[in-house]
Amino acid sequence: MGNNHESFFFTQKNDNQIYHVNFKEIPQILELDELDMIVTYQVQSYSCVFYHHQNDSNKVYKITCEKVSHALIVEYLNKSIHGIEFKQNEQHKEYLKFSNEQRKNLEYNLKQYLFNYLTPKVIEKSNMINKL
Description:
It comes from Funneliformis geosporum. This is 10314_t:CDS:1. The protein is of the alpha+beta class. It has one domain (5-101, 110-117). Helix content is 38%, strand content 25%. It has helices spanning 32-42, 70-82, 100-118, 125-131, and strands at residues 5-10, 18-26, 47-54, 59-68. The protein has a 4-stranded antiparallel β-sheet. It is elongated.
């Protein structure tokens, strides 16, 4: 990780929603239980915030997720591929809100993904020597 802040798009199994995920390393001032209590006060209906502790490096990351509207994706594709700006009225903003189940499911899946993504990859020296 070059800097302490990264973003990516994420989808999960059995969910047709696309999520925009931001995560950044934060100083570990509080215990994770205390951070989780803080999150309950930060909950906004259009975003999902939680903390991830990477055990192998003992680092803590703040994760913020937002749903990407399908209308926005269609606008981007029309502009990028066809060169036209086609604005749709997005009257269905309600579906961008997170339910408690969506929050829990997203947090569970992202923590698994981030654990694998942030774990340093160890390359055995013998494998490198054999390939040379």
